[in-house]
Design goal:
Helices cover 44% and strands 23% of the residues. It is of the alpha/beta class. The chain has one domain: Rossmann fold. The strands form 2 sheets. It has a 5-stranded parallel β-sheet with strand order 3-2-4-5-6, sandwiched between helices. Strands 1-7 form a two-stranded antiparallel ribbon. Helix 2 runs parallel beside helix 3. The radius of gyration is 20 Å and the shape is elongated. The two termini are 23 Å apart. The relative contact order is 0.18. The N terminus is likely disordered.
């Protein structure tokens, strides 16, 4: 009888948090980083749009998520929005109303958020969806398996 087995997916996700006012000595920044690392292991802090763009370009194989302040986001989003491995952009800013209309013009922007908890929930959901999209299943067949099942398995492997 066939038994499907799941491969554990490696974590090929990168979160870039970009904010010109970031100070990792600040407890709020440390708390934000801790919450993000509760969702994904690799969180790269940046203080400029250029640093963020450089990291995205240096890691073209990793599915990426960007968390940006509103001001830097307005400057940077036109340059990064069409990158193939960029999955989503989250704007993290206390001035939600200032950036709400602008953010709606960009499909990869998944909202303007005032709370890192909301971003972490959205990020966890997005990563779960990416994992499901990239999940593979191995079917182990024995010689006495149904020929139709074997044919189906061969077809799936070719896809």
């Amino acid at each position: 009888m066939s038994r499907p087995s799941r491969r554990r997916l490696p974590e090929n996700y990168m979160v870039i948090w970009v904010d010109g006012n970031m100070d990792m000595a600040n407890k709020d920044c440390q708390n934000t980083m801790d919450q993000l690392r509760g969702v994904v292991n690799q969180v790269n802090p940046c203080t400029t749009a250029e640093e963020c763009i450089q990291q995205l370009n240096e890691n073209p194989e990793e599915i990426s998520f960007v968390i940006s302040s509103g001001a830097l986001g307005q400057h940077m989003v036109p340059d990064i929005h069409d990158m193939a491995k960029l999955n989503a952009i989250y704007i993290f800013c206390p001035k939600k109303e200032r950036y709400q209309d602008w953010a709606q013009n960009w499909a990869k922007i998944k909202g303007v958020h005032t709370s890192i908890k909301h971003i972490c929930k959205k990020l966890a959901t997005a990563i779960k969806q990416c994992n499901q999209d990239h999940m593979s299943v191995d079917l182990k067949l024995t010689s006495d398996d149904d020929p139709q099942l074997r044919e189906l398995t061969d077809f799936i492997r070719k896809e």
